[in-house]
Structure formats: C-alpha cells, structure tokens
Amino acid sequence: MTQEFSIMELDQRITYCQGVLSRIPRSHPDYTAYIHHLATSRFNCYKLSKQKEDLDKSIVHYTEATFLPPSWGSNLNVVQVFCRLVLSLLYRSKESNQPEDAKRVVEYLRYLRGLPLKTFKVSRKVVTTSLVEALGIQVELEAGGTGDIEEMMILCQELLTCHSSANYPTDAINTFFIAILRKFIQRKQVEPLDGVIQFLRDALRICPPDFHQVPLGLAITLETRYQIKYSIDDYDEAMTLFESVIASSSQFQIQASESAANLVLIRAMIYPNPEYLEEAISRFRTLPASSSLDNDVHTFVMAFLARTRLKNFGLTEALQDARYFTSKVASLASSSDLSTFDEVDAVRAAYPMAVVEEKIRNLRELISKTPPGNSNHNTHIEDLVGWYKTKFSRTNDITDLEEVIKCRRILVASADTSHLYGCLPAHSLGSDLYMAFKCSNKMEYLDESITVHRGVLDMQCAQPFRLGLIRLLAQSLSERMGLLGRRQDLDEFIELFPLGVNDKLLKVSDRFTLSCAWASIARTARHPSTSVAYEKAMSLIQSSFVSAPTLQIQHSLLVAMRGLCENMPLDYASYQIEMGQFTQAIETLEQGRALLWSEMRGLRNSMDQLSRFDSPLATKLAAINRDLESLTMSVTPGTIEISDGGSQIGDGMDPFGHLVVKQRKLLEERDVLISQIQELPGFGDFLKAPSFETIRVAASHGPVVIINHSEWRSDILILLRNSPPSLIPTTKDFYHLANELKDRLVVARKEGLDSDKYKRALRSVLKGLYNLIGEPVIDKLRTLGLPEQSRIWWCPTSVFCSLPLHAMGPIPSNDGIKRYFSDLYIPSYTPTLSALIESRKPSPNTSYQPSLLLVANPDESLPGAFGEMEIIQSFKSRLPVDTLCGKNATPADVVEGLRDHGFAHFVCHGILETGKPFDASFKLYEDERLTLLDIVRSRLPAAEFAFLAACHTAELTDESIADEGLHLTAAVQYCGFRSVVGTMWAMADIDGCEIAENFYKSMFSGNGQGVGYHLRSAKALRDATRKMRRKKGMTLERWVNFVHYGA
Questions:
Q1: pTM of the entire predicted model
Q2: Which of 229, 612, 746, 881 is the most buried (most CB within 10 A)?
Q3: Coil, strand or helix: which one is 931?
Q4: Contact 966, 917 (CB under 8 A)
Q5: How far is CA 442 from the centre of its chain?
Q6: How far is residue 378's CA from residue 536's CA, in Å, rounded to a whole number?
Q7: pLDDT tens by residue, 457-501
C-alpha cells in the first residue's frame, strides 16, 4: 500500500480507472483488477490529501473488491484485498473517533489472525501490529473491554519473540506504550498490571538504546503499582527508569520529568517523611519550562506543597510561599475565563443563581447524551455535584443535597478503588450523607454515612486520607452515641484510635494527637484501653517534633502542639498516681518534660562505656551525634522559598530542603547504630528513657519535690533516695488555685515591678503558695525526719515553673519573725531529674579553687555594674579573676573564655524575645548578643558554677512552653555548668554589688572545706538573700528574684 505518485498523478489514475470501469461490466475479467487499482489509488491519495472522501471511497472500493472473483490482472488474492480493506478501516477509525469503527476493525483483524496468512502471502507481523494499533484506539476511545491491554501485551510478546533487537517491533510497542499512558491519564487500572510490568521488563532487555518508550512505559506502570502496593522497590525502579529517560535528552524527556515529579508527589502524600516533601518541591520547581503540565495545575500543586510545608514546620517563609501561591490561585479564579475553573468551589460561588441553575440543566443534558463508562460521563457528573452543592449552599434545601447524593452513588459504582484516588467518591458520599443528617436529623443518613466511611477506611487506596476518615467516622459515631447511648458505638469509637495511632504511614504528630484524644476519651469513659493510649502517646511525644531540622523549628512545633505536649505527660502521671503507681508516674514526668533538652543531651551522651566494648561503633555514633548536633543547633536558613525564582542549589532544592534531607539521613543512620548497640550485652537500655532506679539517684543529696499540675488531679510527690516516693494529696481546687496565682502575678507585673499593685500581688502569691504547697510540704518533710537547713530541690511542672516556690511564706510563727521557705531549707530548682544527676557527675575541678571569668558590659543604664565588677575582682586573693569587658567581651571571646574557667559571673543586660526563647541573650559590647543558642552550642568541660547577674535569666519567654525550661539559666547549666544562679524577672541594678559580695563571701568561707564550690552555691545564695532582706527598704521582688539551679 505504498504510494509513489503525486496527487495529480493519482487523480489521473483514478479518472482512468473510473473511465474503464464505466465501460466494462462487473463480469469482465479485468473488472476486479481495476477496482483494486481504484481502491489503492484512492487510499494513496488520501494519505497525501487527508481528504475523508478519498478514504471513504477507498473503503467502498476495497469492500466491493473483496466480494468479486479473482482477476488475472490483479496479483492480490481475496485475503490480501480484505487485509487492505481492514487497514483502510483502521485509518478511518483513527480519524473518526467512532467506537464502532474501532470495534469492527478489531473484529476483522482477529479474524485475519485466525487464517493461515503465510499461505495467502499476508504478513502476520503487519496484521498483528495493526491489531495492536486497533486495540490502542479502543483504549483511547474507551470503547473496548477490560482485556484490551492484556491482548495488546500478548500480541507484543509474540512480535518480540519473532524479532531480534535489530528488527524491534517499535510500532507495536509504541502503540502499547501510548495505551498505557492513556490508562494512566484516565486513572484506570492497567490489567494485568503485574503481567504488563514483567513484559515491559522483558522488552527492555532487548530494546534499542534510543527507543525510550519502553523504559518510560515500564516506569509509568511501576508508578501505577506503587500507588496500590506502596512498594519501595517499585518506586526505586520507576525513578531509575525516569532518570534514564530524563538524561537521554529525547522527545520523552519532559514526559519523564512530569511523571517523576508526580511519583515523588505521590510518595510525599503517602509517607509522612519530610525529606519526601522537599524532593517533591524540588521536582515541581525544576520542571522544564516547556512542560506540558498545565500552568494552572502546576500552581495548584505548588500551593498544596507550600501549605504542607507550612503545616509541617510552621515556617514564616513557608507561610509567605503559601500566600504567594494562594494568591496566584485566586487570580486564576478571578480571571475572565471562569469556566476553566468550574471545579473550584470559590469560583462557582461567584456565579448568580440563574447561572447555577443553567449550568445544572446543561450538565444534565450532557450526561443524558454521554454513555456510562465513558470518562466524560463521570466528569460531567462530578461537575453536576459541584453545582448542586453550590446551589445547596445558598438554598439549604435538602432536595439539592439529595441530588448530590444520587450523583455520588453513580460515581461510587464506577470507581476504580485500586487507584490512589479511587476511594474519593465513597469518601465524599459519606461526608454528604453526614451533611444530610445534620440538615434533616434523619438517622438513616447518619447510619449510612457511618457504613460508607467504614468501607472506605478498609480500602488500601484510602491511605493518604486515612486520618481525615478516622476523624469523620469518629465524629459520626460520637453523634450517634450521644443520640442513642449505645455501648457498641462507644467501643467502635474508641477502637478507631488505634487504627490511626499504630499506622506508621501517618505523620507522627498526627498519631500523637490521636493518641492523646484516645487517652482522654478512654479515661473519661473508664475504658480499659486508657493505659495503652497513654503509653502510645508517651512513645510518640519525642518523635512528634524531631523531624524538624533545627531547634528553633522543633520548638515552634512544640508550641503548636503545646496543649497536648504540656498536658498529656502530666495527665498520664495523674492517672498513674490515681492507680497507686508512684514510681511510674515519676518516670512519666521525667520522660515527658524538657523534651528539647533531653534530645540535645542524648547527642552528648558519654561514649566511654561503649568505647571500651566496641570502639569503632562508639566512634561512628559520636561522629553522627556531632553532625546532628551541629545541624540541629544551626540557624534556620533565611531563604526558604518554593516559589518561582526561589533560592536554588543546582537540583532545585533550597537551603532548607537540603537541611531537611541531611538531617533525615543522619537520623536514619543514628537509629540503625543505636539498634545495633542495644543488641550488645549490657547495652539493652542504651539511650532509652531512664528507669525509676536510675532517676531516684537525683535524691542522693536531699529530697526532690515534684509538683504535678493536671486538671484531672494534681499531686505533690517527694522523691527520696532510699524510700518509696511519698505522696502529698491536694485539694480539688488545687489546679485552679495554682492557675489563679500565676495569672495574678503575670497581670500585676505588667504594671511594673515597682508598682504597689505588683508588690501586693507578689505578697499575696507567696502567701497563697505557702498555703497551697509550702505548708503541706514542710509538714511532710518533718514527718519524714528531714532536718531543717537541709538541701531540697524543686522539680515543678506547668505554672509552677514560673512561681517562686523557694520564697513561699511568710510561715506563721509565735515569735513574730517573718520566715520563708528558704529560711527552713536550702532550696534549688532542677528542670529534670536527669539534669540534676548530670550536674553531680564527678569532675577534677570540684575540690580546689578554679579561676573565674568576669563578663561585663557596664553602661549608663547599669551604673552599679562598675561596683559589682570591683567586688568580684576583690576576690582575686581567693581565686584568679579574668575580665572580659567592653569591646573585649564579644560573643566569640566570651564562649572561648568560658572553656578555660570553672566560674563565670555575668554583669550585663539580659534580653528576652517574645516567642523566641533561643534568641534570649546577654547584651554585650555595642549591642552584640550572646544568645541562648550560642551558649547551648558550646561545650564547657571545666565549668562548675555561673552567676548570671542580669535580668530575666531564669524567666521563660511569653508563648514558650513552661516544662521545656528554655531560659538562659537552663542553657548555661546544659552546656556544662553544674550550678547556676539566675533571676526570675528584671534585676535591680543596685542589688548587684550586695548580692555578689555576700554570695562569694559565703561561698569562700571555711565552712565548706572538702565540698565542691558548686555544691556550696545554693547555701551561699540563700545566705546572701537573707542578708538582703534585712536591709532597710528592701522589697520582696528584689530578693525573691534570685534562684539557684543545679547541684
């Protein structure tokens, strides 16, 4: 059927044949030959002119020739003629887009393949290749059956078997590739998927190197299977294939780039790993400018990614990106061509009601003319759903919603639930049924909504929507439980939570949130799963924020979940106390607070014991810990953009993305090493939460008073070294009274520390604290036989972290002398029991006088600073004093100096930054800042004691989490100092000289011989503040301000 003539020559041949045929009868022996010639000429003319009339007449002539007797003037037998007829019909089916044409051609070609084609001199390869093409047309027109792809695959297998790589069946394989692509675009399942994948693997082995349809087709089918089975092997194989096509610079490069980006996006939707999201951002950002992906679709995807990044990390820059793309979506929606965005609810809502009703009528007419099974049929129904919902939003007429539900049922019936989005029709039906219930109060709607959502929850394709489904189903069951009071609804309601909590494909933070809700509901209902729920929550709390790469972002995530992160450990401890499990309650409180400090302390865990057992393993872990610590304590990159023209590093990933990917790699390597270490003999508890026997050592030098502040019940526990914990029950109003005390102090402080209102408030708070806590604690300590003037440590939670427990009083007495808690006992604070234990670990610097580093930045606002400096320097006879003052006191010089001195004394301003605890700082020369983060980064092996004579050094910033203890005093303790004196609020400049002189005199007195200076510091502070109190005109807030942390 090849042509060698021009159109003019073919027209002449056609005219000649027509003339001959007009002059001879059908019975003439040459008639058949001329019909053959005429049909062929018409067909060849069509191939040049593309005139449908030529093709139609060619088919008519070939049809006539098929039924004519053989002619001596024609070298074609009847099978050859029929074959040409079928091939002409194949051409027409490609042009006509008529399903019946395609079906007829498939039927004829199947018939031809059943004949002994070699006998009739017909190429089996041509017939087979043509049948593959015809089946491909059926797939495109959605006219065939479910077996079209399988039949195409079998035919291509036959062609592959019969031909070598030098004669590769490129036409058939290309057709097969296009059919697979069509199915992918139509979101329909390729069947048999496993068989197709194996065939394409076989085809790839002998595929010519420049024939990229095979690797691309295989990658697309693997992508399809990945959406069903979530197999990482399928993902890896598909990405390797996509990358090979992208690297080829072929015409399929853009298609491969788009498909690879889509695959990465799907992975990011299925798995919660933050590095997957960053790769998706990178892929879509770097799609070629000539990509066939619609610009509007690209904008929607980028908006989704920006919002997801914002949700994951709460970044300001991510918020800007989300706003940028949201504005682009809005500008698209407000463009003149609103019809392009009919699927957007906000756009439909902009139309007048008359237009909405017209849209509904038009869509109903379109649906009536579109046969079911055709993808356009479902598209029209989906559009109709949208317009009916728009109408319902205005009318609130249940009949409109019932029309929505009818349409949803049709979509559910035709949905392919093996596809990633195959669950959405049923998901939406369940939601609309619930809406119908809320609108009508008809129980049958609620019942069906629950049934539908139950079914969706069991679908594997529902994985990306699992969390929302659990919440929707829980909401529906809760509604029905409230209406009917059925116990089975409660049981099913609670059984939903483990489905989400144990699902490792959900984000850890979402699993943690679900576990907290589970615990609260189970406890309220006295359900036997309460303990399990709390344990799940405790196992997830640490992991819920460590996916963020830096401390600053981790803190932001904690603040975003502050209600849960603050309350859940306290609530669980209260439950354990209720059950009489005091030791477990103390373990829970230790594990559930100071999460950031605990995470960082784990990166500095001693490797000495491990080094003796397995030195290479210890070296590897130490190196990873150093890298993780450096990354975690880095400053979040300032440029975090996913918008067009954002900061890019070669591969399109911005600095923050690279940070995330690096951190995740290090965490994975660290987890593997820790698992290996925990399998070693004697290392089963390595880096696990400490047991009670471990943390009770914190009470070796005196009792630790732990206050648990929970709305369920509040308690005071006294941790003792050689006895079981002692419980002090509290009154029912304890929780609310404690909140009121803190609020009273915070509100009054806004009036100024010198205001009468604040002084009255502080006085009443100290008295209230004594009544609430001081009196029962003192009574218990006396009952336990603890002598007065003994050391005790406060380990408070929640609001008590900001209240001056050390100064509770005055304590009623018969002699009229005012005494406060610190007059009876020598108090200190500790953020956690582990921090206290760490501060007591042996050091070579605890038995002699170390040197002192004086860091000072006196200015006009600190006139007393010079006098305080003189006081410190006057102790040079007791210990060497090195001074960093003015321009010599840069942040770098201070950190370096701290490494060489056991003592440190700061005389400068302390600065708080609202909501930014890591930016809390000491103000140095020319407003340079030594921040909390700078301090945390440092390692100070020689550190023993620090006095922070600056404002706010032990004060929590607003919008910070109390139990995290993120203040300068805790940071100084974390980096190595065993004992630290800080301030709870602003410090009066005039107090610096007196407190310093009295403190160091007490510290260096002969009473503490043989005791490390850091162990003397708490008593020294108590003695110094007692002397301050005796001074005429001394106000409460000035001496109460000073607190001691650590050993």
A1: 0.84
A2: 881
A3: strand
A4: yes
A5: 38
A6: 43
A7: 999 888 888 999 999 999 999 999 999 988 899 999 999 999 999
